[in-house]
């Protein structure tokens, strides 16, 4: 155990010997008091860190990356790269975030500096990808930024200006233009798309312009570019590893290696736009809505060839929401909820006005519509007739299971409705929220709620309590549930319980809160939380935030993948189903818990699989820890406003 020179053990022993020599002159009480003071003096100094970093402008936040680079944001809106092992300052960039100063939230107040503005790329099959990060943010009015940076060297790989995108000034500062939602990294191709569309106000007739550039991530060089197409949202990678672009006026399938179109589909009239689009789960057919003459039309396009299969008029004032399924496309506007057949486009049926997320339940189970957070209604897909409806406050579709529709209510409780509309878990039989959850496999899920741990079979809907009573010391409530790959860990600031899928308790440990002002500082708990949320639940939230009839309804695609899986559970569900499920296991092997470590206040390093302490450090500091490397056991914390210390257990 290392101590600073000022509080070294040698100095402490010298003081103790001096005290012993004065025994004849000192009462027992005085001796005891002196010893306490000496020991307190030894303990008042923290362990020496592995390294120290000082920034002149001050430290605002840190972010540890998979490739052992510590990103540090400074108070002057600079970004710095630090070797997390040695503390060596690798690079600094003072201009990367400058425009973020102007960002404001929905309440009109400044958002402030946040590590969410930078996204480190990851590829489980290529660790070098994590040498790159994307800086991307916008206020949807004046501020818009998009930069790819090498976080090992600090070099800018690409941004719209470097890519030669045209400079446009409409309002606000002059900047190279790009479509914010359409420009980003494409993991399957290990490249970056920068795309833009705009009206050129400097030319007669204000012509509509578009441009797209594909940049190789490793070299930063433009692999190809075209002025024939663009995209309003990130292009879709097709099964044959090419790109599907959906633009305002041009949609196309593009050869990802050359940038040449296999086909294009243009709006009928250049003054109009594509206002809504969706594609079925297999990306075989896409459906477009546009104005044509004095009416709207829905067109079905074969996405492999670009062939227009059919076109049907649609009388509507506003752009409808299109939801594509393999059997057709559901068109929902301000008045109607209509199914157009996939083969002909003929209207198969029209139902009463409905609005909400549309989910095909598969087979003959019907089509579910979540309505205004009040109802879940299921229609017969052949007739449009209502099969059943459940009224539940705050209801949101959570995921499809083999036994029915799992849902959340206004309290975050989890229920299950079978495909006939019966409450399989309802009312008091719900898993009472709020819940923690983790999904170790496609067909089962672990929940923690209301002091109980449940194992849920997603194929038949059975739920069983496997841990009946979870009680933490200091009256703490669990706030993280993780799957390590071999066991489950339920934890809070000062407590951990490890258990297996049968509910056997593998360990239960408590570390007392420090008895100084640090006690209860939740900010000091640095834990790699690997709680795996259902993909469909995340997609639901994404669907809610899309807010555009133009964007594809990815939520329905996620439900489609689940539906296919559960329909195929009776037999071999195939490789594709496994590929779609990316159950991330806990990356970190350790938890770090603030407690009294004997020599003072510090952190214990706890193995999540065994629950045993495998290391500790003394900090004796009141500032919160900023970040950690839970895989390798490093801690990065801020002792002063301008410093970061790196500790290695």
From TrEMBL:
Residue ranges annotated for the Pyrrolo-quinoline quinone repeat domain, each copy included: 253-352
SUPFAM superfamilies named in the record: Quinoprotein alcohol dehydrogenase-like
InterPro entries: PQQ_b-propeller_rpt, PQQ_rpt_dom, Quinoprotein_ADH-like_sf, WD40/YVTN_repeat-like_dom_sf
Gene3D superfamilies for the chain: YVTN repeat-like/Quinoprotein amine dehydrogenase
Pfam families for this protein: PQQ_2 (PF13360)
The protein's name in its UniProt record: Pyrrolo-quinoline quinone repeat domain-containing protein
């Amino acid at each position: 155990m290392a101590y600073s020179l000022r509080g070294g053990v040698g100095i402490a022993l010298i003081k103790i010997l001096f005290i012993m020599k004065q025994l004849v002159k000192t009462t027992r009480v005085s001796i005891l008091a002196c010893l306490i003071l000496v020991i307190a003096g030894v303990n008042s100094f923290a362990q020496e860190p592995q390294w120290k970093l000082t920034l002149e402008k001050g430290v605002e936040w840190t972010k540890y990356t998979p490739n052992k680079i510590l990103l540090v944001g400074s108070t002057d809106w600079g970004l710095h790269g630090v070797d997390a092992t040695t503390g060596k300052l690798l690079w600094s960039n003072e201009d990367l975030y400058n425009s973020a100063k102007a960002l404001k939230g929905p309440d009109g107040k400044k958002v402030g500096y946040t590590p969410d503005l930078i996204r480190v790329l990851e590829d489980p099959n290529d660790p070098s990808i994590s040498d790159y990060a994307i800086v991307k943010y916008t206020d949807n009015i004046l501020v818009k930024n998009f930069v790819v940076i090498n976080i090992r060297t600090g070099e800018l790989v690409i941004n719209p200006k470097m890519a030669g995108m045209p400079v446009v000034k409409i309002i606000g500062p002059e900047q190279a233009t790009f479509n914010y939602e359409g420009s980003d990294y494409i993991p399957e191709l290990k490249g970056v798309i920068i795309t833009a569309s705009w009206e050129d106000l400097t030319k007669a007739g204000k012509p509509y312009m578009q441009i797209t550039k594909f940049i190789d991530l490793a070299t930063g060089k433009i692999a190809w570019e075209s002025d024939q197409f663009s995209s309003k949202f990130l292009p879709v990678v097709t099964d044959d590893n090419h790109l599907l672009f959906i633009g305002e006026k041009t949609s196309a399938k593009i050869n990802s290696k050359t940038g040449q179109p296999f086909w294009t589909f243009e709006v009928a009239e250049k003054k109009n736009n594509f206002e809504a689009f969706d594609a079925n789960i297999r990306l075989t057919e896409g459906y477009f809505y546009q104005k044509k003459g004095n009416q709207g039309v829905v067109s079905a396009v074969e996405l492999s060839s670009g062939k227009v299969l059919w076109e049907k008029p649609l009388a509507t004032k506003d752009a409808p929401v299109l939801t594509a399924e393999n059997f057709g496309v559901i068109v929902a506007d301000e008045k109607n909820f209509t199914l157009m057949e996939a083969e002909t486009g003929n209207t198969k049926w029209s139902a009463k006005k409905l609005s909400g997320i549309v989910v095909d339940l598969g087979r003959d189970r019907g089509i579910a519509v979540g309505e205004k957070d009040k109802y879940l209604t299921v229609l017969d897909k052949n007739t449009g007739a209502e099969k059943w409806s459940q009224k539940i406050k705050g209801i949101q579709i959570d995921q499809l299971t083999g036994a029915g529709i799992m849902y959340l209510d206004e309290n975050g409780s989890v229920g299950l409705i079978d495909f006939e509309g019966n409450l399989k878990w309802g009312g008091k039989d719900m898993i009472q929220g709020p819940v923690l959850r983790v999904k170790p496999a496609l067909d089962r899920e672990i929940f923690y709620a209301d002091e109980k741990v449940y194992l849920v079979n997603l194929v038949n809907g059975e739920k069983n309590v496997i841990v009946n009573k979870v009680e933490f010391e200091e009256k703490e409530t669990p706030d993280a549930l993780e799957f390590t790959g071999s066991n489950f860990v339920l934890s809070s600031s000062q407590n951990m319980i490890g258990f297996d899928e049968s509910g056997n308790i593998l360990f239960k440990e408590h570390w007392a809160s420090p008895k100084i002002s640090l006690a209860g500082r939740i900010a000091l708990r640095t834990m790699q939380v690997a709680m795996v949320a259902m993909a469909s639940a995340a997609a639901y939230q994404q669907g809610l935030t899309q807010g555009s009839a133009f964007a594809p309804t990815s939520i329905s695609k996620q439900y489609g993948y689940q539906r296919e899986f559960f329909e195929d559970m009776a037999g071999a569900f195939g490789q594709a189903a496994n590929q779609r499920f990316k159950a991330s296991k806990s990356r970190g092997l350790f938890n770090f818990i603030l407690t009294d470590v004997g020599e003072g206040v510090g952190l214990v390093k706890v193995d999540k699989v065994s629950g045993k302490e495998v290391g500790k450090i003394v900090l004796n500091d009141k500032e919160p820890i900023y970040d950690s490397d839970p895989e390798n056991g490093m801690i990065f914390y801020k002792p002063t406003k301008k410093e970061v210390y790196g500790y290695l257990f």
